[in-house]
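Homework-ish question, so no full write-ups if that breaks the rules, but can someone show me the predicted structure for this set?
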Amino acid sequence: MKFNPRFFVREALKNVRLNLLMSITAVTTTFICILVLGAAILISAHVSSLISSVRQDVTISAFFPQDASQKKMDSVRNSVENYPQVGSVKFVSKQQAYENFKKRFKDNPQVYQDLGSDFLPASLEIKLKNPKDAGVVARKLESEGFAPKDLSYPQQTINRLNRVTDYIVWGLRGATALFLAASVLLISNTIRLSIFARRKEIEVMKLVGASDSFVRTPFVIEGLVQGLVGAVIAAIAVIWANSLFVEWAHNALPFFPISGSDVSILYVLAVLVGLGAMIGVLGSYLSVRRFLRV
Amino acid sequence: MIRFDNVTKVYGRDTVALERVNLEIGEGEFAFLVGASGSGKSTVVRLILKETEPSAGAVYVGGTRLSSIPRRKIPQHRRNIGCVFQDFKLLPNKTAAENVAYAMEVTGQRRRSIRAKVPQILELVGLSEKRDRYPEELSGGEQQRVSIARAFVSQPPILIADEPTGNLDPDTSVSLMQLLERINRIGTTVLVATHDRDMVNEMRRRVIALDRGRIVRDEVKGAYAGEV
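A: Not a homework solution, just the prediction itself:
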């Protein structure tokens, strides 16, 4: 038996037009759900990239003894740079340390007036890949010959930061999952309502000898169209809002490292539209099935 | 063509709709199924369409035992039976012509043959001019004729009408019955469930009378109450 695919598409589009109110309801529901979902995805993307940039700012300062030779300091630096946990290492000479000090206290020069330019020790400023490794790196540095008092790192801050960021990341993931579940339920319920209103029609189709798939196909295409329309509008809205937010953040919060490249626009678009289409198809498929038992 | 073999149908726990019914309707026959509301007429129709299963006994259509037809083959079974309902059961979103065409579309027939056949059948039931009207724009009799056109467009071997004149005035009923008779004359087996006394007396065809789920009378050229 050969079916004409154009017949089904024509049927589906005609149904969308004839049940306009229900179609609008389904599209609106999909739109709102996908919008909230998209917002949740974008917010968690921005927050996690913000968190990882804050984490990168955690540094360990290791101070050399006053009498350390340049050669010795260079060899320690080379060795530290090769630690797997270390992101980058910056050598701060005595002279640079003095300049930094002067800059910081430029408003009261009497603080450093009487001191020579070499009273501050040279140091390494070590940035970590993951602040969790601060303890491990510190112990390694001790074995390089640094005394514990010559190592400075904000252990407490690091611990607290780790805990808070874990909470935030998991909270956002949980919220996204909840939104997803709510969306699926809400959208499939709306579709079910619209199909319930037409259950008599389905019964007649079955009595005239239509097979299940013959009855179902136009409904599924209808669900697909509704899901796609709602999701595409929502995805465009989400991406537009995101670009507005990034632009605003650049101007209003220049010290926050928010960038448009935190999120792959194409990825978000694909996920949201794919999700909308899937919910539409699945929702109508499952809803029609209940009324096919005639 | 249609055979009931000791069929009993019980709804729920103790509502007996049919009780040990034996019945045989041959190919090309025209038969009335008569009886008051609740006598089991509609249950006979529903059993033939395999809308419901008998509680005991067996129903055969065209030699096939219906209980042996799997669920996914039911559509093919129903395409052999044109059906006309008291409440017409037209699709409200389709015009008269589209309603008729739908019955051909479900069997996957070519668009060209659908386009050729639908006007012919609408002509036959006298609705050529109203082909593009929606059901709500048609009178009861016109809707019923669309329903007959839909039931008959694929030329099924069996045509069943459940109270086809139930919602119609007497004049319209007569022309409707003439239509059914014409369909029967070209070889279609026709079964009409009705409690329309005048109709049955007028036609002088086989009458099977049901009373509270039992066959109480089966006459070859019968009348409604058997008073002839």
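Now go work out the reasoning yourself. Hint: The first helix of chain B runs from residue 41 to 48.
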